[in-house]
Amino acid sequence: MTAARFTRTCAGLACTTAMLIGTLVPAASAGEETPTKTRRNTLTAMHGEAMAHASYHFYAQQAGREGLGKVRVLFAKTAHTELHDHFTGEAGLIHFVRGDAANLRESIRGEREEATYMYPRFAREAWQDKDYNAARLFMEIARDEKRHARQFEKALYAITYHRGRIPEGFAPEPVEVPAGKPKVRSARTLRNLETAMRGEAFANAKYTLYAEHAEARSPELARLFQRAAAVELTEHFAGEAVLAGLVHRTADNLRRSIAGETYEATTMYPEFARVARAEGDCKAAELFTEIAGDEAAHARAFLRALRHLHHYHHMARTDS
Predict the structure, then answer these.
(1) What is the spatial distance between Cα 262 and Cα 302, in angstroms, rounded to a whole number?
(2) What's the rounded mean pLDDT across residues 288-294?
(3) Helices (H) and strands (E) in the chain, counts
(4) What is the pLDDT of residues 205-243, one digit of tens each?
(5) Which residue has the higher pLDDT, 83 or 314?
(6) Which of 58, 128, 145, 318 has its CA at a distance of 20 to 30 angstroms from the CA of residue 161?
């Protein structure tokens, strides 16, 4: 037996043992969520995958602006994997997507929270720090989130009482995110921008899943979720990314991506898999291990692209 196979076998036995021990613990009542470490880790991972998807989307655009077609395709394909494979698989572990009505109620709660508390606070703090562009953006997004909440409320009424119409949603007005440095004065505003970006990236990802879930039963509801997802990514996240200086030249974007993917592959996901095995969640452990392998492959692909880019620039300097 090889060392790798022996390790997998031992991990499987540990997982099975944990499952047997788990049968001695009283189960949660029907409908009650068990706040396990694995569930919390899964949500953490989903936030990371959503942020990677959003970042790579704009890194791909920057590579295109620099005429780096192959790198643009690499970032775009990796972004697709992060959302439609990793985020979606992790969502399935914790039954994140539920019925249309439940998805709408969760969306209303989230939009109201952002519109009423988070963004107004960020705007006040940005104003205090004399980051006036950020303050204006935060208040603009707060108004958008309030409108999203109202539209979701109308949709919930329509599908619950079979009266009224599901709104079409607002068409996004995409914002360009060129390479650049942060455009804010204070560290506090920059931290708030980064927090907001993570929230918008997660909203984009979850609304994409909600739309896919609704498609077969209600194309109108699916369209509402799709449009909301597009606004969160191409308007809200994008506007915040410009002020935060998210996008750099492609070489730097590749370096950042390599660091992130390497951390997930070697540290985060292996630890999440270990915790899942200890809790007897073999399915989660297997998925986390699989994703760790994917992230390692992403890191290698980004590293190859970076080396090729360095070689290309070196040859260009030599020819000149």
Answers:
(1) 11
(2) 98
(3) 13, 0
(4) 999 999 999 999 999 999 999 999 999 999 999 999 999
(5) 83
(6) 145
Tell me, yes or no, whether 107 and 227 share the same domain: yes
Structure tokens at 149: 């909440």
- Compute the distance between CA of residue 98 and CA of residue 12 in angstroms, rounded to an integer: 30
Q: How far apart are CA 60 and CA 212, in angstroms?
A: 24
First-to-final CA distance of the chain = 56
Residue 145 shares a structural domain with residue 223: yes
Residue 29 has pLDDT above 90, yes or no: no
Full-model pTM:
0.89
| Structural domain for 297, as ranges | 36-96+249-320
Answer yes or no: is pLDDT of 9 > 50: no
- Give how far Cα 163 sits from Cα of 109, 159, 264, Å: 22, 7, 47
Same domain, 89 and 108: no
10: enclosing H helix or E strand: helix 3-22
Tell which residue, 225, 268, 295, has the closest CA to residue 42: 268
Within-domain flag for 168:
yes
